[in-house]
Amino acid sequence: MIMVDVKDFDNEFANQWCPGCGNFGILDGMKKAFAAAGIAPEDLLVVSGIGQAAKTPHFLKCNFFHTLHGRALPVATGAKIANHELAIVVNTGDGDCYGEGGNHLLHAIRRNVDLTVLVHNNRVYGLTKGQASPTSDFGMKTRLQPAGVINAPVNPMALVLSLGAGFVARAFSGDADHLSEMIQAGLQHRGMAIIDILQPCVSFNPVNTFGWYKERVERLEDTGHDPADFDAALKLAFSGEDKIPIGIYYRKEASHFTGQIPALAEGPLIEAAR
Fold it and tell me: What is the pTM of this model?
């Protein structure tokens, strides 16, 4: 493993997130995870869609591709086919991934593409000033829904488990060390790793605050949960919010997408094109 420092991922661009935004904790957790995993900036590609979460690559020194709303996963899939030796991380938000990108999420899981997908889940659209997202709670009042949200929220953990994801975890941006551990585990997993990150939005979500989460999050490592037990993982996904489990819900390796393409056994396609 090569020696990599957290500072190796710093760049010169000024951050534009609101002071106190949960994205700062995610950015710190990512840097710690990349350094701990020994991934050099030149060996890392971060792909993002649209939203405050999608700005994350702007504040990292690495290869990155900022694509269209909801379209990060197909771009990342293409990049993985072109160079399957790259570590590829997708930064996306709850609206970007579970809303606009929901159809791509379904098929990326089905293909089991070797990607680490970080979903910044703040339960609201932060970039476009606070309308409800797919994960907003029923009855939540927003600028666009002043009488309260009338749709039931998506349960992202139950969704990705039922679609057959091989690595499903949840983390909290207010616990950067644990978040870094989850990202490291996702990077090590061969196949698609999905980490739903509970991330307060200090500007547009006054309900799901840092304090609200800190009263509820509970590390699965402290409960004796077995990540190989699918039924137990699904039960956790429907366990409600009095206690919110964070950690690895489910993990099972299977044949991944690029590993099943014979032409890639000889090396990355990008090398053949030179």
Answer: 0.95
